[in-house]
Amino acid sequence: MTAGRRACRSAFAGFAALAFQTLGVSAQEVSFMVFGDPAEKAAYQELATSFMAKNPAITVNVTHIPGQSDYRKRLAADFAAGTPADVTLINYRRYAGFAAKEVLEPLGPYLDKSTVIKRDDFYAEAMAPYNWKGTTICLPQNLSSLVVYYNKALFDAAGVAYPSDDWNWDDFVKTAKALTKDADGDGTVEQFGIGTEASIFRLAPLIWQNGGDIVDDPANPKKLTLDTPAAREALQWFIDLQVTHKVMPDQVSEASEDAETRFQNGRLAMYLNSRRGVPAYREITAFSWDVAPLPTGKQKAGILHADAFCMAKATKDKAGTWSFIEYAMSAEGQTILAKSGRTVPSMKSVANSPAFLDPKVAPARSNVFLDGIAHIRAVPVMETWVDIEGTVGKELERGVYGDATVDEVIEAATRRTLEYFPQ
C-alpha cells in the first residue's frame, strides 16, 4: 500500500470517527504496542489501517518499539503501572509471568464464540503453549522453527553443495569446515562457516534430536537434565563447533562483529535463526541466500518460536479490542502480516498460500519452515523461564568460548537454576 493510500484511509477513519461523535455515538480507541524493524512496523500499521477502514468507529493507535529488549522493558513497566496497551505482542516464553498475575484477558472464550476464526484454523503447535491452566490466554499470530540461513555465493565460491533436506550433524560440520577461511594464511579467520548464539534456545533442539531433554518433566519441570548422556553429548557437539573445529567465531571475533552482522556482510556462510531475520536479510544486495532445515541427529526435532496477540485485562473496550485481534488473526489480517517476511502465519491456510510461499521473494524455500512444524517442540512455559534461559546462556558462553569444560557448564547451569524451579 502506498503512503498516499495509507494517509487517505487514516483520514477516512478519522473523519468517520468524528462523524460518529457528532451523532452522539462514542468513538472507540484501541492501543496496540508492537516491536520489530521498519518492515514489521509498516505491516502492523497497514493491519491497523485496513481494520479501521472496515470499522470506522474504532481507531487503532499503534506504538512501535524497535528493539525487543526495550519492548520487553516497556511491556513490564506498563503492566506494573497498570497502564498497558490494549493489545500487545508477547512471546510464549515470556507471557507466563503476566498470566500468573492475571493481568491478561483470556482470549479462549472470545475465540470459541467467534464466527470469523476457529481453533482448527491454526497450527496446534503454536496454540498449545498459550494454554494457561486450561484456558487460552493469547492467540499466536506466528510460529517458526529454527533454520539454517546460508550464503549461496560463499557455497558456490567454495564449490560446496547447498545443504540438503536430509543432512546430518557430520554433514553440517564438514560443510562448516569447508566454508571457514583464513585467506591470507595469517592465522586470523576472515570467513567463518557457522554462527549462532550460545543459548539453551539454540541448544535444546540438538538435545532433543539426540534423544535427550532439557528438563526432567516438560509439563512440570523441577530441574535441568543437561547431565544425562544424550544431553551431554549434544552439548559437547555444540561447544566443539568453536572450541575444537574453530568454525564459529571465538569470543574476540564475536565481540568485534556479531555473527548475524557477519552473515549480512557476507563473512559468514551459515547462520541459525528463526523467521525473525527475514526482513533484514531481504535488504542484502551483495549475495543471494536461502534457508535449509537444521541438520538431523538421531531423530528430527525443532524448537518453537511464537509471538501472540494478548489483550490486557485492564482494557476498557474489550469488545472493540477483540474485534481488532479477531481481524488480525483472520486470513486477511495474517496475509497482511505475512508480506513483511517476518512471520510464518499461524493460520494454516495462509501459511500454505502464495502470501507466504512465494518463491520469487527470499527465501525461495519458505516451505522449509512449514516442513519443520511436524517436529517442533516448545520449551517449558514457566514464570521463571526467562531467568533460567539467561542463567544457562551465561554458562554456555563460558563453554563455547573455551573458559569452562562441559562438566563445569553442566554443574554450574544446574546448580544456579535450581532456585527458579518449584521444589
Can you put this structure into words, describing what you see?
The structure is a single chain. The protein is of the alpha/beta class. The protein has two domains: 212 residues, Periplasmic binding protein-like II (D-Maltodextrin-Binding Protein, domain 2, 3-Layer(aba) Sandwich), CATH 3.40.190; 200 residues, Periplasmic binding protein-like II (D-Maltodextrin-Binding Protein, domain 2, 3-Layer(aba) Sandwich). The protein is 44% helix and 14% strand. It has 20 helices and 14 strands. Strands 1, 2, 3, 4, 7 and 13 form a six-stranded mixed beta sheet that branches. It is globular, with a radius of gyration of 23 Å.
Write the layout of secondary structure elements.
Elements (H helix, E strand, L loop, with lengths): L2 H20 L5 E8 L2 H17 L3 E8 L2 H14 L5 E5 L4 H5 L3 E2 L2 H6 L10 H4 L3 E2 L2 E2 L2 E2 L6 E5 H7 L10 H10 L13 E4 L4 H10 L19 H15 L7 H6 L2 H6 L3 E6 L4 H4 L7 E5 L8 E2 L3 E6 L5 H12 L1 H8 L9 H4 L2 H4 L9 H5 L4 E2 L7 H16 L5 H12 L6
Helix pairs in contact: 1-2, 2-15, 9-10, 19-20
